[in-house]
Amino acid sequence: MKQIQGDVDLRDLYFKELPSILTNVSVGGNFYCVNNYLTSLVGAPSSVRLDFDCSLNKLTSLTGAPNSVGQDFNCSDNKLTSLTGAPNSVGGDFYCSFNKLTSLAGAPSSVGGNFNCYNNNLTTLANAPNSVGGNFHCYNNKLTSLVGAPSSVTGNFNCVNNKLTSLVGAPSSVTGNFNCSNNAIKFTIKQVRAVCDVKGKIYV
C-alpha cells in the first residue's frame, strides 16, 4: 500500500470528487477535504493516522471513507441520511452533526473521544457506539426514546431538546453531567438517578 507521510490538505478547492490517486493510500498525518462540492468519498485514503475531516460538503453517503482513523472523524454539515461506510473505530472524536440523519446505522462501534450527533432528525439511538470515551451529545433531534444509547459515558450526556417521554435506555453510568431538559415532559432528578449513576450535575 502506498503511504503519504504528512498531511493531505484539499480544503476549498471546489472539488466534486476526490483524486483517484489517493485510492488505497495510507496517510500518516491529517486528511482535509473540507468545503468542497463532494457528494461521495470514493477515492479517499484507506487509513488516516490522525484526523479525517470531510465537513462542509454535499455528501449523501460515507461509502469510500477510510476503514480506520486514528484521531477525529468529522462529516458534519453535509446531506447525510445514513452513516453507512463510516470507519469501524475512531480514536478521537466523531462528528456527524448538522446532517439529515434519521438513524445511527453504520456508526462506529467504538469512539475514543466525543460522539456528536446533534442537530439531525434522529428518532432513535439504535446503533450508537457501544463505547464512548468522552461526551455523548444527541441534543436537537426528534428522539422519543434513549434505547440504544451507550451503556456508559465517560464525559457528559446531553439529550436536550428532543421529544422524550421516558428515560428508559439511558446510559447506566455517566461520569460527567446529565442534561435532559426541554423534552416532551419535564423529568425530575429522582427519575434520572433511578436509571443512571451520574457523577456530575443533573439538569432537568
Task: Describe the protein in words.
Strands 2-4-6-8-10-12-14-16-18-20 form a ten-stranded parallel sheet, with no helix packed on it. It has a seven-stranded parallel sheet with strand order 1-3-5-7-9-11-13, with no helix packed on it. The chain starts with a strand and ends with a strand. The model has no long low-confidence stretch (mean pLDDT 96). The chain contains one helix and 20 strands. With 204 residues, it is mainly beta. It is elongated, with a radius of gyration of 18 Å.
**Morphology:** elongated
Strand content: 15-25%
N-to-C CA distance: 51 Å
Rg to the nearest angstrom? 18 Å
Strand order across the largest sheet:
2-4-6-8-10-12-14-16-18-20
Helix fraction, binned, reads under 10%
The SSE order reads: EEEEEEEEEEEEEEEEEEHEE
Q: Which residues sit in consecutive blocks of at least 5 with pLDDT less than 50? A: none
**What is the count of β-strands?**
20
Largest sheet properties:
10 strands, parallel
Number of helices: 1
The residue-averaged pLDDT reads 96
User: What is the SS-derived class?
Assistant: mainly beta
Give a nutshell description of this structure.
The protein is mainly beta. Helices cover 3% and strands 21% of the residues.
List the helices and strands and how they pair.
Blueprint: E1 2-4, E2 8-9, E3 25-27, E4 31-32, E5 47-48, E6 52-53, E7 68-69, E8 73-74, E9 89-90, E10 94-95, E11 110-111, E12 115-116, E13 131-132, E14 136-137, E15 152-153, E16 157-158, E17 173-174, E18 178-179, H1 189-195, E19 197-198, E20 202-203
Parallel strand pairs: 1-3, 2-4, 3-5, 4-6, 5-7, 6-8, 7-9, 8-10, 9-11, 10-12, 11-13, 12-14, 14-16, 15-17, 16-18, 17-19, 18-20
